[in-house]
């Protein structure tokens, strides 16, 4: 495939053969922006805006679509791949890599790029001088956490591709898991 785009998550194709193409494109765009946000947060305040724009452009145009194609399209990790043999082929049917809501694709791409970026730009100024950081606005931090919590419902539930029938049952389990995960993570603070 051309740079991993043909038959990938960003290939919008023909409306007649794939009627939900624009909804799928929007979902993948949202996933790509999360990966860019994770990576950009690691180098914020330490890199120039041009560097962050290059990172965002390279991630959304080149890096993320290739990884998404490998895992969710017809790539070598996809459980839907047509390949039966090859250097990177693992099992009889597929490589059995299943990533329902993006933890293996979105968060790994963002995390690896964040690590590379953080190592490249070095530590923040004042990181090792022993002074405490100035406290931020606690109500705004709580509001941000609540908005992030609500946003995760859309992120996680979109993976079911619907809320009717068995997809609805799965969506209910995902919503409950998301709620419990967020609620109990507050206990770790």
Automatic annotation (TrEMBL):
It is found in: Membrane. It comes from the Eukaryota. One of its GO terms (molecular function) is ammonium channel activity. One of its GO terms (cellular component) is plasma membrane. InterPro entries: Ammonium/urea_transptr (IPR029020), NH4_transpt_AmtB-like_dom (IPR024041). GO terms for biological process: ammonium homeostasis. It is a multi-pass membrane protein. Residues 21-188 form the Ammonium transporter AmtB-like domain. The chain crosses the membrane at residues 25-43, 55-77, 97-121, 142-164. Keywords: Ammonia transport, Membrane, Transmembrane, Transmembrane helix, Transport. Belongs to the ammonia transporter channel (TC 1.A.11.2) family. This is Ammonium transporter AmtB-like domain-containing protein. It comes from Coccolithus braarudii. The lineage of its organism: Eukaryota, Haptista, Haptophyta, Prymnesiophyceae, Coccolithales.
